Amino acid sequence: MKKKPSISDGIMLGACFCPDVRLFFFIRERWIKPGDGVWGENGTRPRHLLFFIQNGYGSVRTHAGQFDLKAGDIICLFPQKQLYWRADEKEPWNYLTLELIGNDVEKTLADLGFTRENPVLTPANPEKCVSTIEEYSAWLYAERKNPLMLQSILFRILAYMEDLHRLKEHVWAVDLVQAYIRLHYDQPITVAGLAEMCALSRSYLSRLFRQKTGRTIQEELISCRIHAAKRLLLESDYELEKIALLAGFRTVSAFYKSFRKNVGCSPYQYRSSRR
């Protein structure tokens, strides 16, 4: 019996695959006093800082101008001599700060969309960003005595920021999908077809849409069709078969089931109770 040859699967990553970015320092700033901050040479920082605003408001001023920040915003402060940041007088911010070192810090941050002229990333879904960063913040604190784990968490945060950056670049696709559904809800619509229209993958478009709107593309489509059906039920004397067809449902049973699930009553009950 011949011995089977051994097979090795893998890829050569190379030295550039993992950037030289390390966590030098982190702090969770809480209970900041109204109007508290730093300015001038007191704000000098020799390394890159990432501020994740978790609630409240504040402002940062650099050579590029003033940036007013709110919960969910992320700002990169580049090394410079003069920095200014200040908590809001009425609703002072809380934030997580990461200080980074390494040969690839500036390039990595540039890949995430941060530049000295435009250092702010505003996510498509600020509330989701706040909750996610809060989880990472608690995780960092829990593992504060474990250097390897801290570095692992840092790369998870950077990967999450990369995802936010990509999603922000393609937010236009969500608007396009919503507009298309509003105009063509009465026609057959598939996620695959919408993804092809936007030149994006099906899974990416689905994730992008949910991240921005809080619901799936299918839920958006059903909502639009139910809205159209409600209007037809009240403004016409059409039979359910015709209303189902005009609203984009393939069958009366599918229409009936979807209507009851989303409205809480049957189409007949909806019509009779409002006439």
What can you tell me about this protein's structure?
By secondary structure, this protein is of the alpha+beta class. The chain is built from 10 helices and 9 strands. The protein has helices spanning 105-111, 126-142, 147-169, 171-184, 191-198, 202-213, 217-235, 240-246, 252-263, 267-273; strands at 22-29, 37-38, 48-55, 57-62, 65-70, 74-77, 84-87, 94-101, 120-121. The protein is elongated, with a radius of gyration of 26 Å. The termini are far apart. The model has no long low-confidence stretch (mean pLDDT 88).
Structural class: alpha+beta
Radius of gyration: 26 Å
Strand order of the largest sheet: 1-8-3-6-9
Overall mean pLDDT: 88
Fold-level CATH name of the largest domain? Jelly Rolls
Uncertain parts: none
Count of extended strands? 9
Q: Considering DSSP H and I runs of 4 or more, what fraction of the residues is helical?
A: 40-55%
**Corresponding CATH superfamily of the largest domain:** Regulatory protein AraC
User: How do the helices and strands follow one another from N- to C-terminus?
Assistant: EEEEEEEEHEHHHHHHHHH
CATH class category of the largest domain: Mainly Beta
Largest sheet: 5 strands, antiparallel
Shape: elongated
| Share in β-strands | 15-25%
- CATH architecture descriptor of the largest domain: Sandwich
When the domains are counted, the total is: 2
Give the terminus-to-terminus CA distance. 83 Å
Instruction: Please count the helical segments.
Output: 10
